[in-house]
Amino acid sequence: MLIIPAIDIINGKVVRLEKGDFNKEKVYSDDPVQIARNWEEKGAKFLHIVDLDGAKEGKIKNADIIVEIIKSINVPCEVGGGLREEKDADYFLKKGAKRVVFGTKALEDADYFKKLTSKFKEKIVVSIDFKNISGTLYVQKAGWLEKTNFEPVALAVAMEKAEVRTIVVTDISKDGTLAGPNIEGLKQILSAVNISVIASGGISSLEDIKKLKEIKNKNLEGVIIGKALYEGSFNLEEANKIAEQG
Fold first, then answer.
1. pTM
2. What CATH number corresponds to the domain at position 138?
C-alpha cells in the first residue's frame, strides 16, 4: 500500500482545506516545489497534486508550478483539479505526470469521458468525492461545491464499466479534520469493483493506516495523506514502514 502525500495548491501556495471548505484554508508553504522535494527526501514513492483554484473555477490555474514540481523530482505524480478536456490530460502527461485525475467531467459527459479512457487508458484516474446529506452519501463535483445525484458505490461501478483503472475515494466530511477515515464506506466501494482504489480523507494517526492495511484488499493501492503529515501527527518514514509490512 502506497503512502501518498498530498500537495494542494491555491494561489501558488500549499494549503489544506477542512471538509472541502474554501473558507477554511490553512497555508503550509508558499513554495510547493520545495515541499515536493521534501517529500521525496523523506521517502515518498508517489505524490498527489491538486490545483484547487482549478477545481473551483473549472480550468487549470497553477499549471506552471505543477509542471515545475514534476520536473524537479523523480517521484511519479498524479495531477488533478480543473482538468476538463483531452488537451488538459495531454498537457500534463507530456510534461511528465504519471496520471491525471478527473472528477467533474466524468460525471457530466459519459460519452466524452469514455473517449478519454480509451485514449489514455490507465493514465486516467477518477476522483469520487462524497459527503453525507440527510443520511445519504452523494458525490460532489466542481471543487466539492455542487451536489450530484450519484451515490459513491454506484459511481465507482459506472467508472469500472467505463474502463477507468483507478479511482480516488474521498469522504469530504472527513477531509482535513484528522477525524479518521471512513473505513466502512471504503470497504463498500472495494467490494463493488475490481479496480485500483486510493483512499483519502481523515487520516490522523498511524493507527488509521494500520486499519486500512487490515482491510487486506489487493485493490487498495494506497492512501492520500495531507494534514496529518503537515501537522506532524506522524512522519512519512513511520507511515511507509507500516504500509510496506506484509
1. 0.94
2. 3.20.20.70
